[in-house]
Amino acid sequence: MEFLDALETSVRTSTVPVLVSGDFNAHSSVWGSPREDRRGELLLDMLAANNLIVCNVGNSPPFVRGASGTHIDVTVASESLAPRVRNWRVFDEESLSLHRYIYFEIDDGGRRPRLQTMENSGWQIRKLSLQKLEDAVKSEDGGELVAKTPIAEDIDSFAKVLERIVDKCMPKRGRQSNRRPVHWWSEELAECRRICNSDRRKYQRKRRRSGDEQCIEEAQVYKAIRSKLTIAIKTVKEKCRIELCREV
């Protein structure tokens, strides 16, 4: 398999620990599949030859089509990294795909980056004032950036200067604990997704209890709201793309 050959080459030539997660379209009991196939055997051989460890945990299938689910999405890591992969699980949320969301954490051993992340606060970029930006840049003489200090301290200094500049030219965004990390997401989309998740669960519960023939109505309701959500997301993303092009 060309893909496995290419992946093995990348793993062997990597100078750092490797983590790979994706659809391998391979079956093996090692990652939860009830059956074995040739692709699974080849993947296992490659993993063993390169000291890669499977990180999948639990019985929830990452790939669901209709009434059946399969375990073809696999997460693997280098032998030195695998023990730090924690809380691997499959989310029971609507992904608008046959593949479910996979979540896991990587334990950093208690270390934390020196830089403070700004993503939790953020700024209202649409209210950017170009004049204030120009004035803010001119007001920074760059003295902090040319000092002969270790590179990490230079990076910290640059981040602080950049944050001061941004603070002067656009207002900060209000903190919202449930806010989606994409600028085009909205409460309307969130509500549509909540309804979609609810209808999907109702459909799945009745299908497990009564079979496909007895849940036709629930299936139609779920498919309709899922289609509505898909169209709504595509529409708002396209609208934002057009607005961004105009601003540029």
Automatic annotation (TrEMBL):
Origin: domain of life: Eukaryota
Listed name of the protein: Endonuclease/exonuclease/phosphatase
Gene3D superfamilies for this protein: Endonuclease/exonuclease/phosphatase
Endonuclease/exonuclease/phosphatase domain residues: 3-103
InterPro entries named in the record: Endo/exonu/phosph_ase_sf, Endo/exonuclease/phosphatase
Any matching Pfam family: Exo_endo_phos_2
Keyword annotations of the record: Endonuclease, Exonuclease, Hydrolase, Nuclease
GO molecular function terms noted in the UniProt entry: endonuclease activity; exonuclease activity
Species the sequence originates in: Cinara cedri
